[in-house]
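User: Design a sequence. Structure:
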């Protein structure tokens, strides 16, 4: 019996995922007659995390639809801003996205990060257990069924990665309120409570401090303040938020690690 032939059009934003010979407009595709449309789309290389509506002959269908011979399929990109129902918006980043994780934390976004490669199954399990959107450039990882939700990070440049995530998910920004090292929340710290941990020059020069409520890391305006403030200001201008910090000022890691990656 002949296998069904469908005609598929992939949104321009998603064509980077498909083979080069299928990137130009409408393309014919043979299916096995039993696989779902979701499986067919993934077989083209497109992660379902990046797919919005699926249209068959102009009508929207679920990923469980089994394509029939002669159908015309349109694969649309996910809408922006993307809603993630069912849990507070928070993220989990894989080992390759450390700089992005620190920049999201700098903006007050809940961004868990694995600094060691714990393996795809463990990452997917954590995404499900904590209901976090898994951010990755690994299409195989995003295809794991255990994931609660996921998103492909399109660029390998931190500035573009940050704009991509903020534009896609529109998280609420609260700059300078999270620890860039561990993701814990910061609170104002009296100088006297942290003074013994400060070097002489810092003790004499600074009076406003914040401290992580989880790992106890101490923060203040430091040498990297201007560079980090530029990141924050650009994000707030484009995506909204407030630039306030614990203690009435911006708090910058004493060793500048938040700016490194």
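Assistant: Done.
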């Amino acid at each position: 019996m002949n296998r069904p032939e469908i005609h598929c059009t992939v949104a321009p934003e998603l064509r980077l995922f498909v083979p080069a010979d299928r990137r130009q407009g409408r393309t014919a595709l043979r299916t096995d007659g039993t696989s779902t449309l979701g499986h067919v789309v993934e077989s083209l290389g497109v992660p379902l995390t990046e797919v919005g509506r699926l249209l068959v002959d102009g009508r929207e269908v679920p990923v469980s639809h089994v394509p029939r011979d002669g159908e015309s399929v349109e694969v649309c990109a996910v809408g922006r801003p993307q809603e993630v129902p069912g849990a507070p918006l928070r993220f989990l980043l894989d080992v390759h996205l450390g700089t992005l994780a620190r920049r999201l934390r700098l903006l007050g976004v809940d961004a868990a990060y694995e600094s060691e490669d714990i393996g795809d199954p463990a990452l997917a399990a954590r995404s499900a257990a904590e209901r976090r959107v898994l951010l990755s450039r690994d299409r195989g990882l995003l295809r794991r069924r255990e994931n609660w939700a996921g998103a492909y990070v399109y660029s390998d440049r931190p500035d573009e990665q940050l704009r991509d995530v903020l534009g896609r998910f529109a998280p609420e920004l609260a700059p300078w309120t999270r620890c860039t090292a561990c993701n814990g929340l910061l609170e104002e710290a009296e100088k006297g409570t942290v003074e013994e941990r400060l070097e002489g020059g810092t003790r004499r020069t600074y009076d406003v401090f914040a401290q992580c409520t989880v790992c106890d890391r101490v923060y203040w305006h430091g040498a990297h303040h201007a560079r980090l403030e530029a990141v924050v200001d650009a994000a707030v201008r484009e995506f909204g938020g407030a630039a306030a910090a614990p203690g009435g000022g911006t708090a910058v890691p004493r060793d500048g690690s938040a700016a490194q990656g």
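Residues 245-261 have pLDDT under 50 and may be disordered. The first strand starts at residue 5 and ends at 10.
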